[in-house]
Design goal:
alpha/beta; 2 domains; elongated; 44% helix; 226 residues; Arc Repressor Mutant, subunit A; five-stranded parallel sheet
Length: 226
């Protein structure tokens, strides 16, 4: 389920976009001004950001500039009531991925969001890198980074995470993990699997106590949710 942040100061627009995107299956969070949006972007991983240009406290241009300066690469679609070419050029030069002028049709906005998410996923896979929670993961090189800084992970932790990702949106039992990852080593028990999941959550979830990606399916096992 792609996670989208809407940064928009007009309440009716903000709530309307939220309702429509949730209906389309997106996980949506809201921010009512530029400063609140920037704070959320620094704390939480998003698949895409809808960013209004004209807002109190901090404009969308300033938010976009700070996000890109911090090395955060989440796709950004800028929303504005302005139609001047100079504004569009400025937004794109600051690092926005797309630009749509109000009023716009919901169908057009959804199409652009889907196209950007598709390009973003294709680019990540081409580079061998995936964004999972707060980490950038490369399963080919067994590298993990958080905000550009290396994160120590064992080979087995990479294997467990990769297995769950490859079976995303499916329930994976503890026995499956024991057989496919550990080969039913007699010294490994289901408790070992649970401990590995706990450690993975601590490293890649923003809130390990309330995980968003690696969910427990009680009595069965685990499910990885995008």
């Amino acid at each position: 389920m792609p996670k989208v942040l809407i940064v928009e100061d007009e309440q009716r627009m903000r709530e309307g976009l939220k309702d429509n995107l949730e209906f389309e299956g997106y996980d949506v969070e809201l921010a009512e001004d530029g400063k609140a949006g920037l704070d959320k972007i620094k704390e939480t991983a998003y698949d895409l950001i809808l960013l209004d240009v004209m807002m109190p406290k901090m404009s969308g241009f300033d938010v976009c500039k700070q996000v890109r300066s911090a090395g955060i690469a989440y796709p950004i679609v800028m929303l504005t009531a302005k139609g001047e070419e100079i504004d569009k050029v400025l937004g794109l030069e600051l690092g926005a991925d797309d630009y749509i002028t109000k009023p716009f049709s919901l169908r057009e906005l959804l199409a652009r969001i889907k196209a950007i998410l598709r390009r973003s996923q294709t680019a990540s896979l081409a580079n061998g890198e995936l964004r999972i929670g707060k980490l950038n993961i490369n399963f080919s090189t067994y590298d993990a980074f958080e905000e550009g800084k290396p994160v120590a992970m064992t080979h087995r932790e990479f294997e467990v995470l990769k297995y769950l990702w490859q079976h995303r949106n499916e329930t994976v039992s503890r026995d499956q993990l024991l057989v496919d990852i550990w080969g039913m080593d007699d010294s490994i028990t289901s408790r070992t699997v649970d401990n590995f999941i706990l450690h993975l959550r601590q490293k890649m979830e923003f809130n390990a106590a309330h995980p968003r990606h690696i969910l427990t399916v009680h009595g069965m096992g685990y499910k990885f949710i995008e």
